[in-house]
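Complex record, two chains
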Amino acid sequence: VRRLACLRGAAVVEVGCGEGRLTESFAKEADFVFAFDPDREAVVAARERLLPTYDGSVSFAVGRARDVEIPPQPFDLVFFSWSL
Amino acid sequence: MERKDVVDVLRRFREVVLPRGAILDLQVIKPNPVVEVDGRVVCEIDGEPLIGPAVLAARDIDAMIDAGLLVEEAVDDHDVLKYYASGAAVVEEFESSVRIIPEDAKPMLRAIRQECVVRERCRLRRLGVVVPAPAR
């Protein structure tokens, strides 16, 4: 991903975050990551693992790409992870 | 994702990154994923249930590029490796996957007690959004 996009300071949407394996990589460099997945259990696991470290800079939601509520702010990057 | 939703979703998230952002799309591509032990392929996994829809989604993206809504800025093909403690762990994880380990390979995999690697070929595309020219 770093070969194709600059994450430093970016606001990122991650579509299909699963248990947050890539979310953590994004969170280390980005200013803000909004990550979501339709799998509630996976999102719960991602929250439990990442929010203690990245609370405030990462936000999770359960939902589908066609209707999830997206935070009303500008984003620099949308990442579809095996989700189209 | 439902096939009929792909274009709508792409249009929706294109709006999210307007006017200067980008979309990154990671998809599986051929060949099929394989299980490796010590760098040697021991089993091929049927990846078609993921690869087929990914091919169709890529065509939808191509159509949006042709329509002038997106522009392909970069492409990176690479292997994604996932490590498992044993062959049994591979079999267990793929029981809940749409990809299929052949039934006749499962006993052999379950007998492997050393680290296994699943190698999948993937394509990452960077898609820039194109801001429509103002109407005259």
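Note: The mean pLDDT of chain A is 92.
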